[in-house]
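Appendix B. Extra example for self-study. Work through it before the problem class; the solution is given directly after the inputs so you can check yourself.
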Amino acid sequence: MNYTLRHTTRYHYSAPVTLCHSEARVLPRKTQHQQCGASELTISPMPQVQSERRDVFGNRVLYFAMEDVHQTLDVTVVTPLNTQPLGPLPQTSPAWESVAEQLRADSRFDMQLYRLDSPFIRRNDELAEFARSCFTPGRPLVEAALALNQLIYDTFEYDPSFTTLATPLSEVLANRRGVCQDFAHLAIGALRSVGLPARYVSGYLETQPPPGQPRLIGADASHAWLAAWIPDWGWLALDPTNGTVAGEQHPVLAWGRDYADVAPLKGVMNGGGDHQLEVEVDVMPLTDHSAA
Amino acid sequence: MTAPVSPSLLEFGTAGLVEDYLNQLGKGQPGTFDAMLDRQGQLRPGWQSLLSALEALGADGRHQQHEEIQRLLAENGVIFNMHDDIQGRSWRLDPLPWVIDQLQWQALEVGLTQRTRLFNALYDDIYGARTLFDAGLLPTQAILASPHFLLPCHGSQPSDRPAISFHGIDVIQNAEGQWRVIGDRLQAPSGTGFALENRILMARALPEMYRNAPLKRLAGFLDKYHRTLTTLAYQHRDNPTVVLLTPGPGSPRYFEHAYLANYLNIDLAEGQDMVVRDSQLWLRTLGGLQPVDVVLRHCDDAYCDPLELRGDSQLGVPGLLQAARASGVAMSNALGVGALELPELADYLPALCQHLLGEELLLPNADAHTQPATAPIFDHQMQRLSPATLNLRCFVSRAPHSVTTRSQQPSDYHVMPGGLAWVGTPGSPSLLSPVVKDVWVTANTPQPHVSQLRQARGPVVATRDGTDLPSRVAESLFWLGRYGERLDARARLLREALMRLMEYDQDEIADQLLDELLLALEITTLNHDGEGAKPPLIGFAQKRTALLAQFGERDPQALQPMFAHLLRNARSVRDHLGDDSWRVVHQLRQRVDTFNPSLGASAARRACEGLSAQIAAFFGLCNETMPHHYGWRFMDIGRFLDRVLGLLSLLKLTLNAPHSPGLALWEVVLATTDNFTAYRRRYRSELHPEAILDLLLFDETNPRSVGYMLKRLERQMDKLPGSSSPYRNAERRLLIQANAALHLADIDRLSHLADTPDAQEALEQLLDELIAPLNALSDAISHSHFSHVERPRQLVSMEPDE
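Solution. Structure tokens for the complete assembly:
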């Protein structure tokens, strides 16, 4: 699929900000299934310093600093992007316990990075127990992971009013409700609690307007899912919010251990008072005809 | 029945220190290595002359020397330690140094340098290519789980600067006499200041012993480290600015930070004193932002940058890591080095050393089976030497000549010939140790005598015009002046009130003046209801309790809380105050610490008098010893601004005195402003309000008059930065306004004040015209000179709930 992504983050401050250092992860990364064209980046007001680097996860990080007094901040990125369909899922996979056992002594950085605790996700017995309803003894890894994905989709309610960034996983689990970020965190926590690596993926999802109505600009949203490690195959991307495998319809922005590693915009500022945040996201599919 | 007397005890006193010590060793640990005696019980090289000297002193002589050392230690503690006495070091310094002969030392030295080379190579891989993890050469899970392994530091160290230019390594000697490592200090390697202090104290307390010893001197090492720091700079390489980043007076290591900054002659800076702009680090000073080229970091990694590291840190500078990445500032050491302090690395080091350096690891870590060697320390009475376990912190620094290269040759590093030794089980924290020792590394050849250790650090003040004073320091000095004056004024009012309380300690003879003083002290208020109203007190007992409550801690206006403000500001500008002034602060603190509401009234009155005298001594010493730079001017402005405001509000209260419209209150005004004598000498008469007003308002020769104080403020403000501009800034305009009110006052209208309502009205109007602009003056000064100091905060809080 060809898409044009537009992602705008806008802050209005109640008091002037005199200095602000920011880090944005809004430039989509290239993946095995995704090619990105040059992003068109607009930051307003114009930052005095701006530089791009890769973080330890390979994400594109944009650092910028505003050194003049300002009262709004607007970051808009427009990126043309092409996603490829996923290859077929592996027909067979080893029993999940043998994978967990092997990885326990694995010293590879990328394996352990996504297998241990992270800022928002702590492994615990409660999460392990939740995982074991799908990870039954001897079950093939891929089958168990897909079952976990489906379990969350089937038994949890999508409820934006229930959680915030700070809601702990135990509450999400107890009340069986939350948003995409909570479901991704939950699945990751469950996988890690039985000794399996999983990472958090941030990105987008194309939404379909109701039949007969035009697409509304800015109506789409950021999305989040997870990926589980399948030995000799790769990272299997799962979207528990929709109960699907994340593939061609899921343009990827960045990944990390959890949300803290991929927050779209972080900053430290002087002044500012209260602020209001507006986020607008458009995932515009291009027909083959209009694709470049 | 009598207990049998051991032969060694019988001999004690004649047999000498060494035999006594040998006897103790023999009984305890046969075959264990001892620092002083070899296996034949003979003294090791370098100890003989020391022991002879200490033996010759005798127990009494040694005790005297020890007392002298302790006195000097306590003195330093007072001078540099802004902390409560319980925090920071509380050890004694043993008069017998730990002598390490050159051969033993060389073995250690080579191992230490190798370790620093290894750790530099390790850092480069862990935060760079990360090949060692996948090769199975590292404890991947332990590193990833460590809070000191910081993912944002990945790829952040520019390739032309070494990550580690200063390395603290804790070692012990094992029972075989081999050196073993206990741990590494890389984030904020402390202890150099203490090593230096111990050496200086030994040299002062035992000059003969010290001067004659062929031992390696410490001064050269720190001089070289200072050059290493300046060489790290990317810009301004001819004259770079180096600061020591400290977490501030709240840190238990602040003593050492102040001591070391002073010794190296570099600025002591807290995170809030600095800002990152244009990917460069800057120090906020009165003259604006000044570039900082090199940071000697004594703040833990994770707290250094709330943008990329711990978001809840108030100690760091937002954007610091980005500035380091962009070569906008060099750091000793790089951020992220804390991961290398992990104890789990120990088992992996032999293989890593082979892999990275192609060498055998010379200094392995101690393990659970390591038995420590013994070393002698004196007991409290300085009578006997007894065996103890010593820890030693050694210091390795990058040599200046190789600092801009990534070269990893042994000659690229220096080891301090000495270190901080403390008594305690292996790995016990140094700050909790009861006894420390100076460490003497013997030299084969006589060493150049550097007894002027303290003079070796060059000029103390290198500022040209003083505008490089950090804004925070200027602000703290300003508030130090204000709180000092406020405390003094309050102590004087309290003294007057307590005197009246004692004179009339019977309920029926109510003293109206006391009620006025309670108002002036804001212990009661004029309005009896509404928010913040404090009802009048009735009877001697109530008044007495209320007054003595001012010696407690509860009322924020009471003496102790007010002194706490003073002390907080004084501590944060410690390096700008003279040692003598600081001693007075220390005495003040000791005095205030004794305050409590159960003091008797007369003891309380005397306490007030003592307080006023000490505050005067403090400011007097400041005036005599501080350079009359901007810092001093801000303090003086703070003092006189607070004093003039205090006087004006007292005059206003007098004018409106509800209880005693007579003249008695004017006498109190004269007394509390210490003008009673001046008045008597000048007028030799009864009290006339007009005469008092003249003395307190207009007489510019009287240092307690409004006229004098305005003149003084004007003189100081004329010399502040930016005052040469042709446009008058807000604070100058406010002062002119106050001056105009005073000079244009219609003095005739003020006559017959006591019985003329018109005169009273004129005075009230005059006082208001003075109070309004002077009240605004403090904010105006803050705004023009200190306004940069503002706490940065997070755009989005990323702190998960625990």
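Self-check: Residues 399 and 413 of chain B are 5 Å apart (CA to CA). If your reasoning did not lead you there, revisit section 3.
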